[in-house]
Hints:
Layout: E1 3-5, E2 12-18, E3 23-28, E4 33-36, H1 41-49, H2 57-66, E5 72-74
Antiparallel strand pairs: 1-2, 2-3, 3-4, 4-5
Amino acid sequence: MFVTCHLCSSAIRQLNVDEDNGIAQVEFINGRKYTYFDVAIDAITELLDTKDSQFSVGKWVNKNLLRTKKEFKPGWPVINYD
């Protein structure tokens, strides 16, 4: 199940994460959407559990999605959990 993270970012419009399946969906400010797979569960947990008002969603996306070269697909495809 996806959870939408409501954290402010100058680069990220929306970030949805599925902790159970290691999936993250990102919508950037420019409107482009991507779905990332095999995201580290501990990274998603860190994101969901943060109480830090200075937490940077953009840095989290860079560190845990972009720099790790995770498999991704453009858009937000329908996820088949079978």
